[in-house]
Specification:
Two copies of one chain form a homodimer. In chain A, helix 1 crosses helix 3 (35-47) and helix 4 runs antiparallel to helix 8 (229-249). In chain A, strand 3 and strand 4 form a beta hairpin. The longest helix of chain A is centred in the last third of the chain and has 21 residues, at 229-249. Helix content of chain A is 42%, strand content 19%. Chain A has two domains: 4-69, Winged helix-like DNA-binding domain superfamily/Winged helix DNA-binding domain (Arc Repressor Mutant, subunit A), CATH 1.10.10.10; 73-249, Beta-Lactamase (2-Layer Sandwich), CATH 3.30.450.40. By secondary structure, the first copy, chain A, is of the alpha+beta class. At the A-B interface, helix 1, helix 3, helix 4, strand 3 and strand 4 of A face helix 1, helix 3, helix 4, strand 3 and strand 4 of B.
DNA sequence: GCATAGCGTGCCACGATACGGCACGATTGC
DNA sequence: GCAATCGTGCCGTATCGTGGCACGCTATGC
């Protein structure tokens, strides 16, 4: 049922992405596999055009540009990506905090797809491709709030994992929060996932109300100001709906 | 030397990306492979997290968000990407034409990695991930002009493919054009690749003069004005060198 | 309503093929 | 100049992917 060489080659591909440019030896240590096996896999990935030798050190491997041609359906041929770009920068300019764009992956987790950094010396850090849980983040709850109830039921059927003291693990409490998100238009997270990280997020919706992605402003707890929450929440929600409009208008 | 199942699974992955959401049957027709083989490959790709079933029609497959964690080395840990973003927007604002950021892939072709759209109703369209030939585009020649002569020799050793009446297919003519690019600081393309598409491009250089990427402004032939070429060329070149500086300063 | 065609999926014996131990040559560090 | 380490290539064997086939299901057309 599972093709060993395929899954392994993809694991290796991911490892190359995280450690590029990387040598055969480093990868064998990482995986504990025979040299020949890793080497053969790298050559195959190279022949497929997904890997290439580093220009300076031809014994090191790195990811080729081919992967950019393969983009998730969630990005809708990257029109979402392009539409979000400028509104995100404007939001960053207005608030001077880091802005993230995330999409849900198979309703399992959120994946960061784009980022605009702020100018503060201390700032939150998520890399593009990082994942986070749906129930414990603002970005995830902004999506959850606009999903069919059946999907939410399925999520709470599994135990809601606790990441910190503040994490919402009670299904009823989560549902109440989601209801609040729908009326206010934005979701909030104070230290519920990563300690000392707060965020305010709003969903980008499809024409039929399906949540495609969410925009979030995230900041250290020290800069979180509850008094300004309504104002910031409105700004984030406006940005998100602006992206929806741009996407559909194009 | 080549692992059949690996290369084939990646071909299938790419096919899914281009036709998503797609069914098993459609893929079997595309490749002429047995149903079971395609099916098994899809399941394996799914288990690796690179594929997922469509939400509406669970019998259709699409690309998962996992691929976003795998980024080309050419983006230099996305510092190039981040450095280019705002200068590109300023250039778009100045010219009101679509701006593309492209990187060379294994010196075979250029790949579009970012885009900022203009406001015109009629505009050029390249998606992120699209590829174009080195010798027939402004974006490619901006790179070629700053490559070691040996690399250019290797390129012209293969036949220069013709895409339109205007395509430069004569090696000597290409070399003369590259020399002009080096003195002027920007490359030009009038309908040499896609008919009715013109572009002006300049390279983003590394500290040692290696071309990393190129910035291009592209427009329909109807809006191309030869009289303004020097001015626009200078603006594009300034933007590109500004990106180089930002990248190194950061 | 029934027949049929087409779909996605699961099974299994066969045989191609990827595995991994090993050896070679190049490079680096002592 | 020696030794350790690395990337690479080879080859017999066991494994693993292959693809023909059959099943259950859905949509289509008579």
């Amino acid at each position: 049922m599972e093709m060993k060489s395929v899954t392994r080659s993809l694991r290796i591909l991911e490892a190359v992405a995280h450690h590029q440019p990387v040598t055969v030896g480093e990868l064998t240590k990482l995986f504990g596999l025979p040299k020949s096996t890793v080497q053969r896999t790298l050559v195959s990935l190279n022949e497929a055009g997904w890997l290439r030798a580093n220009r300076q050190d031809t014994t090191r491997w790195e990811i080729g540009a081919r992967v950019l041609a393969v983009r998730p359906a969630a990005l809708q041929g990257s029109s979402l990506f392009a539409a979000a770009r400028e509104p995100m920068i404007r939001l960053r300019d207005a608030l001077n905090e880091t802005i993230h764009l995330s999409v849900p992956d198979a309703l399992q987790c959120m994946v960061v797809v784009d980022r605009v950094d702020c100018a503060h010396a201390v700032r939150t850090y998520y890399a593009i491709g990082d994942t986070s849980p749906l129930h414990a983040t603002a970005t995830g709850r902004a999506i959850l709030a606009h999903l069919p109830p059946a999907d939410v039921d399925e999520l709470v059927a599994h135990r809601l994992e606790r990441y910190s003291d503040a994490t919402t693990v009670d299904p009823a409490e989560l549902r109440a929060e989601l209801k609040r998100v729908r009326t206010d238009g934005y979701a909030v997270n104070r230290n519920q996932y990563r300690p000392d990280v707060c965020a305010i997020a709003a969903p980008v919706l499809d024409e039929d109300g399906t949540p495609l992605a969410s925009v979030a402003v995230s900041m250290p707890d020290s800069r979180y100001d509850a008094d300004r929450l309504p104002e910031w929440g409105r700004l984030v929600a406006d940005t998100a709906s602006g992206i929806s409009d741009r996407r559909l208008g194009a």
